[in-house]
Amino acid sequence: VSVKELTEESLARIEKMDGKVQAFLSTNGEQALAKAEELDNQPLEGRGPLFGLPIGLKDNIVTKGIVTTAASKMLEGFVPVYDATVVDKINEAGMVTIGKLNMDEFAMGSTTERSAFQTTHNPWNLDYVPGGSSGGSAAAVAAGEVAFALGSDTGGSVRQPAAFCGVVGMKPTYGRVSRSGLVAFASSLDQIGPITRNVEDNALLLSAIAGLDAKDSSTSPQAVPDFRAALTGDIKGLKIGVPAEYLGEGVSEEAKNAVLEALKVLESLGAEWEEVSLPHSKYASEVYYVISSSEASSNLARFDGIRYGYRAEGVKDLEELYARTRSEAFGNEVKKRILFGMYSLGAAQHGGLYVKSQKVRTLIAQDFATLFEKYDVIIGPSSATTAYKIGEKLEDPLTLYANDILTVPINLAGVPAISVPCGFSNGLPLGLQIIGKHYDEATLYKVAHAYE
Ligand code: GLN
Predict the structure, then answer these.
(1) Is residue 255 part of a domain?
(2) What is the pLDDT of residues 261-279, one digit of tens each?
(3) How confident is the model at residue 352 (pLDDT cuts 50, 70, 90)?
(4) What b/e sequence results for 173-182 when a residue is b if at least 16 CB atoms lie within 10 Å of its CB, and e otherwise?
(5) Is residue 270 in some structural domain?
(6) Which residue, 22, 189, 365, 377, shows the most beta carbons closer than 10 Å to its own?
(7) pLDDT digits 0-9 by tens, 167-184
(8) What does DSSP say about strands 148-153 and 96-101: parallel, antiparallel, or unpaired?
């Protein structure tokens, strides 16, 4: 098939499905078709494995000439003048960007209901959320609108929606993928990650987007392997640690049972598992919200009504311009986190809350380091439950924050983790989370592929 046909097929599927799923904030059909024609004229030799394949991008990844909103009124109509590094890389691979995907505003949330523009529905059951904050990315892949998407994961936002939508999502090692051109939420935690239907596609996409980037000084010079080469199916002798905390209080029976069933499969393939402990993970949620909100309050200071997007009208002075712009264009969840972040960093605390959280963060990271002296991977559920009903958790932010407990420790430690589908409960998917050593995404792909 030609690239043009593939592109048309994807656009047709979006036309058919997206009225219900509402994963896309915008599509760029004309540009995509023009690019497809250009690609069709390129010689066959030199085409890589991702050549000509359509991809959707979470709307906090900046795209030159294509509106990028981060699902916020603050950036409504904002057209970036450059491409994110990951966009340069998918272009080099010959992929075709089809559109921009819905998310919680500035990636703050777990349901995609915090988008300023629309609510995305879970393709498995439209009454349920797709998870978040990369809910548009996961739903678009699950609905077959695209086979490839990029999301971002600050505290679980690739893995949890992947689990809720029954697709594969990888949060790479901090520093593996450039954050240049990702609208920053919490800079010490954010990573862009691939969301795909299967493990092989995911491995291909990560190989394409990863690597050292002069525009992001936190990227690593470590060589990027061809992750597909890791998909050997051979996990004989693999040592798995299963944290008691990941199967304990707060984790539903169905999530727990799905993980135990998956462990049986891995055992039958020659792996061994033991119960272990991550003793400091119980503090992870609090630590995550202090650190991520503190960093967000600083990162979001740039939205002042002057440099980007929204600007309040009829103001009498600069002070009022700042105040009205920010109160009119930020949603409540975003405002709440900015206030909490400023409090954590500010005079009342002398920065004490932030500093103390960083110390506990080190303990959380050390828990992982200790386990990885003995185990190759750590396994647990990606989420404590299946997807929530739309509206169910809107007035219950504390439960949502608490439910991040299975994913945020991984971002705090900077290690990689993948979510792969592991069964269903009441017609809704569950995800298995496989956590690895720094820069050892290859082992995660190997295990996920052997299991899937
Ligand atoms: N649910 C978490 C939050 O609300 C994670 C978000 C994310 O990873 N971007 O902050």
Answers:
(1) no
(2) 999 999 999 999 999 999 9
(3) confident
(4) bbbbbbbbbb
(5) no
(6) 377
(7) 999 999 999 999 999 999
(8) unpaired
Q: Which domain holds residue 190?
A: 3-230
Cα separation of the two ends of the chain: 28
Cα–Cα distance, 429 to 431 (Å, whole number)? 7
Residue 378: strand, helix, or coil: strand
Asked whether residue 54 is domain-assigned, the answer is yes
Indicate if 133 belongs to the active site.
yes
Cα(270) to ligand 1 centroid in Å equals 35
Has 58 been annotated as catalytic?
A: yes
Q: Which CATH number goes with the domain that contains 99?
A: 3.90.1300.10
pLDDT over 90 (residue 348): no
Give the position, in ligand 1's atom list, of the atom nearest the Cα of 156: 8
Residue 152 placed within a domain: yes
CA atoms within 13 A on the CB side of 140: 39
Domains held by the chain: number: 1
* Residue 153, ligand 1, Cβ within 6 A: yes
Residue 157 in contact with ligand 1 by CB distance below 6 A: yes
pLDDT at 108: 98
State if residue 404 touches ligand 1 by the CB under 6 angstroms criterion.
yes
pLDDT at 398 over 90: no
